[in-house]
């Protein structure tokens, strides 16, 4: 069963750091055969917090999604965001 990273940004304080993160994160995600389904774009918040950016990445299965997030490559990218964004990141199994 496929799995997804769902990342909803609440606040972005430094777009340059976000761009730096995105380059490195993309490489890690590709290493684990992740596929971007949503990467920014228009959005409308119906309930909850307003979000300047939403990301959805599809993986072949839940364990692969976990392995990617926990990988050294992704964690190095993730560290770039420290103090520059507020976001909610979840890994969910789906169809």
Describe the structure.
It is a single chain. By secondary structure, the protein is α+β, with helices and mostly antiparallel strands. The chain has one domain (3-93): Alpha-Beta Plaits (2-Layer Sandwich), CATH 3.30.70. It is built from three helices and four strands. Strands 2-3-1-4 form a four-stranded antiparallel beta sheet, covered by helices on one side. Helix 1 (15-31) runs antiparallel to helix 3.
Task: Give the helix/strand layout.
Blueprint: E1 3-12, H1 15-31, E2 35-39, E3 53-59, H2 62-70, H3 72-80, E4 85-93
Antiparallel strand pairs: 1-3, 1-4, 2-3
Helix pairs in contact: 1-3
Please give the number of β-strands.
4
Oligomer description:
single chain
Q: Strand order, main sheet: write it out.
A: 2-3-1-4
Indicate the CATH topology.
Alpha-Beta Plaits
Q: Describe the largest sheet.
A: 4 strands, antiparallel
Give the proportion of residues in helices: 25-40%
Averaged pLDDT, please?
96
Number of helices: 3
Please sum up the structure shown.
This protein has about 100 residues and is α+β, with helices and mostly antiparallel strands. It contains three helices and four strands, in the order E-H-E-E-H-H-E. The protein has a single domain, classed as Alpha-Beta Plaits, CATH 3.30.70.
Brief descriptors of the model:
95 residues, alpha+beta, Alpha-Beta Plaits
